[in-house]
Amino acid sequence: MKKISALIFTLLSFIIAQRAFATHLRAGEITAERISNTSLTYRVTLTTYTDEINGRSANEAQEDVDFFPGFINNGVVSYKVARREKVLISPSTVRNTYVTEVTFPGPGLYRVSCGIPNRNEATINLPQPSDAITFFVQTTLVINPDFGLNSTPVLLNIPVDSAATGVRYIHNPGAFDIDGDSLSYRLTIPMEDRMEANGIGAPIDGYRDPSTVGNSPIRNEAGTGPATFRIDPRTGDLIWDAPQREGQYNVAFVVEEWRKAPDGNFLRIGEIVRDMQIIVVDTDNNRPELEVPGDLCIEAGEPFEFDVIGTDEDVDQTLTLSSSGGVYNIDPAGNFQQFVADEAATFSAQSPRPSPIRGTFSWLTNCDHVREQAYDVLFKVEDAPGRFITQLVDIQTVKINVNPPRPRGLQGEENEEGVQLSWLPYADCVRGGKIYIYRKDGCSGLNPGECQQGIPEDWRYELIGEVGLTDTTFLDTDAEQGQIYSYRLVSDIEVSNFNTMLSAPSTEFCIGSELPKRVPVITKVSVTETDEATGQIQVEWSTPIGLDTSEFAGPYQYVISRTTGLGGDNFEEVYRTTTTFDGSADTLFTDTNLNTSGQVYKYKLAFYYEGDQKMGEAPAASSVRTTGTPDDQEIHLFWEANTPWSNENQTHLIYREDKDNPGVFNVIAEVEVTGPNTFDFIDDGTDNYLADGDQSITLENNVQYCYKVETVGIYANEASQFGLLNNFSQEYCIAPADRTPPCALVMNLDNIGCEAANQEDFCGVNAFTNTLSWSNSTANCRTDIIRYNIYFSRYEDGSFEQIGFVAGDKTSYQHVKNATEGFAGCYYVTAVSILEVESEPSNIICADNCDKISFPNVFSPNNDGVNDTFEPMNCPAFIKNIDYEIYNRQGIRIAQGGGQSLSWDGVADNGNAVSPGTYYYSINVEFNRLQETGEVKNYKGYIELIR
């Protein structure tokens, strides 16, 4: 009896020990770093996050794990890797790292994986008990010599986070790719280990989307629609809007890595699966909010700085502001790691304090920081509501593009051989590259956009040469003497083994345009009447500069030519006049019957002596063009012009029409224009210019307001004798508009339903049609919907792509599919307002196929055209692959085959027709289902062959 009791005690102790060992995994991922330029050796790291409260003893025992590298080496498929580090990162979570080096046998696709027993308990969106489910993560590497060296991204933000019921939750992994590859993100299902399958995992059967957990109706934070759980494929923001039920959740997503090939296409070269845990609590604490700039572009070498502000409705709480990203050269553990070349960025935040809290991001970039993909910099504000109240955070990611520095200091002079150009030495770039030289006739006065790369095609410059990055001169031997030319430089530097990246165009250098001798110059191109058909522009010019009438005799003529567009060059003569230089008003022309509402007009002036002898031309100048974009009770105005004088470093005036006095415009603002990207102004209704009285108003949405801009410019150098040049744009009218997105929709899906359908139902032309219909999720939704966008993902864990749209007066869409794919796939729909603002996705609904297939028990291969082959009956559908084996009555296999269809003609594999009789079949069918890897079904039976 004592022996039996001891045995029972021993067994119980073993079971308890095993259970303790199996209940601690919260989150984790696998990363890989290429550490050799000559061999395929990688440093592979598994990082896990474990439950310190309920799984401490289990984690203590997890001193090593089994790694599966994705290949077999001398019969070995896995090997043990010891734990390198164990760090307590919070009172409830430990971070563990297991590091090894793997040398892969050759190019190929490898799935490095690891499975560990077991997850921690009480994860409510997993089947229960969740602590009986293994933890499994994998990373895919594509090793290809043509792709060059590659390391996976690193994930700089920990995957254990807190959320609050009813409050929008956001997480970002802080992925950084040291190679500068493009990253994308998609959701997947957490996986469990198939212990018997040698490093192969499977999605957890019974996993629930977190947004479906709770008591119906499950709403988003704003209460305008159903809760959603999604990941932004571009930024990696994981957004749950909003949790309803308290508890612990596990979710997973994939970080995909893409490399740009020489042909411009992107190739997927790897992916990481991150499995993470979210702990949702019920709290009255308000989530803090961050204010950050939008995505930014900077030019390498320029100082760069911006402020970040955190606020909280709970003004008595202390806020902490922090930032992370590869630009800081700090790894997830807070240690130095060289992600970017020196110098790294810095973030200086105020010490923890009540709302508001401020921080400043600074980065002095250089040529080594240039890359095609943006740097993701994550900012986080966290509150401190008290010891027993869960902290809440807001996270925002700013994408920063670092472009190559443009060549600077371009100058030139004319000589007997042509035009000799020179410029300053290029920035210190260790990468190779070129400098391209461009030229066009005349001066452009154009300014590149903030993120411009290369010369815009519509600027109509011609590439005339190229030199190395270290060169500082170029001789244009094709330039004609006395002509006006505009020159620009563009650098093209290497950013990878395959690709280069263009800088923005250099500042323009015009030769022959300083002040043409003996030729007048244009001094005004100002819109005086705005209309689609009867618009007017006033053009003025100077008399010829330095003309000696004794040397160049009359008669003298001015000839005005006109073209449309800022960069237009198809000029046509519109005015010609004779002058005697007697002081009469012959240097002014009013161009009439123009579409000044919709067009920009550009003018050039030629001067003739002795009647038909051309002395030369003045550089062309355009009218000023004002445009704008609406916002909620605000108008954002922009203006531009293409002139030989500079409109920069001047004060421009903004006029707004008096609503009570149509046609009367008042100055409402003085705008200090300092550079190419400062020709803009936001009108919120406030009159900032009080010299003519306070004309402040409240801008109302959907009410039109009219504006015009007065620019101020000056000719450089000696041309400044003409003083300041004032020109008006056309009158531009626009209405503010509410840019809040439409409500998220509630969608339904209807089809014949393969489970309920008979096999014969699949024979129709439109048998496989998914019909989507939708409605607003709440009563108070926007009504200015211009279209609905329909998105589709073939697989449940795949990426969504837009497959169509319908007009805003439609509320349904039919997706007709083929018999192979059938009904399978997932959908969501969005609404788009008249301002092109798109709603959040609707609920996601998926349709699936089934395993409907049947086989005859008799066929007659006698070539009479009837029942000549053994094949599935009644329009078989959804077949991805079908393999068959035919056996005779003695159990000997006589025929086999496979593919997407089955059609056996009664001929054995040896080429002989088999004799009449009874035969047996074994058929394996893999169906196209919602999961990419479908279940294989086996069908066995007999067939009677008759001849």
Tell me about this structure.
InterPro entries: Ig-like_fold (IPR013783), T9SS_type_B (IPR026341). It comes from Jiulongibacter sediminis. Keywords: Signal. The chain has 947 residues and is mainly beta. The chain has 7 domains: 22-157 and 169-209 and 248-274; 284-403, Immunoglobulin-like; 405-511, Immunoglobulin-like (Sandwich); 522-622, Immunoglobulin-like, CATH 2.60.40.10; 625-734, Immunoglobulins (Immunoglobulin-like); 745-847, Sandwich (Immunoglobulin-like); 858-945, Sandwich (Immunoglobulin-like), CATH 2.60.40. The chain is built from 2 helices and 63 strands. Strands 1, 2, 3, 4, 5, 6, 7, 8, 10, 13, 18 and 19 form a 12-stranded mixed beta sheet that branches. A 5-stranded mixed beta sheet has the order 21-28-27-23-25, with no helix packed on it. Strands 31, 32, 34, 35 and 36 form a 5-stranded antiparallel beta sheet that branches. Strand 54 (785-793) and strand 55 (801-807) form a beta hairpin. The longest helix is centred in the N-terminal third of the chain and has 20 residues, at 2-21. The radius of gyration is 36 Å and the shape is globular.
- Please outline the major beta sheet: 12 strands, mixed
Given helix and strand content, the structural type is mainly beta
The percent range for helix content is under 10%
Bin the strand percentage: over 45%
Integer-rounded radius of gyration: 36 Å
The coarse overall form would be: globular
- Straight-line distance between termini: 75 Å
Keywords: Signal
Signal peptide: 1-22
Protein name: Fibronectin type-III domain-containing protein
Organism: Jiulongibacter sediminis
